[in-house]
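seq as requested:
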Amino acid sequence: MSERNPGPGAPDPLDDMAPCGLDCGRCLSNPGSAIARLARELRAELGGFAALAERFAGMDPAFGAYGGFERLLDRLGGGQCTGCRSGRCLLSSCGVKDCAAARGVRWCFQCPEFPCRRTNLPPALHERWRANNQRMAARGPEAFFAAMRKQPRY
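struct tokens:
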């Protein structure tokens, strides 16, 4: 299992991947993600459309929900989570980052106690954590990350 060394001073793209195997760089709450960027761009492109939405709702009822759509765009474009490796994780109850740091591993599969129950994750995320780390152990982190980047984030 190789871990790519991008060279001195160069950012390591694997830093976007949390110890659980989630891609924090593409999270909907990460202000640098494509999701956030596109939401902000769409909100800007729509400009003052809210003033016209009611008139458009007379032609298509879907526009009646435009206010909620604007709130969703604002939420998607305004996230503050920059990933657990940065210390600003969206899921504050997650125990994975601190556990991995305490054990001196970059990813959970590298820990001799993997899999464990110290994640503090809800059941569905716990299962995803386990599966992600099993895939990383089998393929290596670089190959896992490259494959994940080719798939939709959600």
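Residues 123-139 form the longest helix (17 residues).
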